[in-house]
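User: Can you model how iron/sulfur cluster sits in this protein?
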Amino acid sequence: MAKVVIDKAACTGCGLCVSSCPDVFEIKDDNKAYVKNQEYPNCDLQQVAAECPLEAIKVE
Ligand code: SF4
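Assistant: Here's the modeled complex, given as structure tokens:
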């Protein structure tokens, strides 16, 4: 199964990934994106990763 890893050093907390897939991503108090749910039935992860302007989302 795919696994999402977020490069915290690259992430600026822009929120695009949360807008694209709020079931999976969230922004925490440190203004970085986190994966809150490792099951993503409704998300196209490759598409969300491609939308990240900083290329901070890696799908393994
Ligand atoms: S789209 Fe990329 S830079 Fe923006 S919050 Fe998500 S992981 Fe961070």
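A couple of observations from the model: The chain has a mean pLDDT of 93. Residues 24 and 37 are 5 Å apart (CA to CA).
User: Helpful, thanks.
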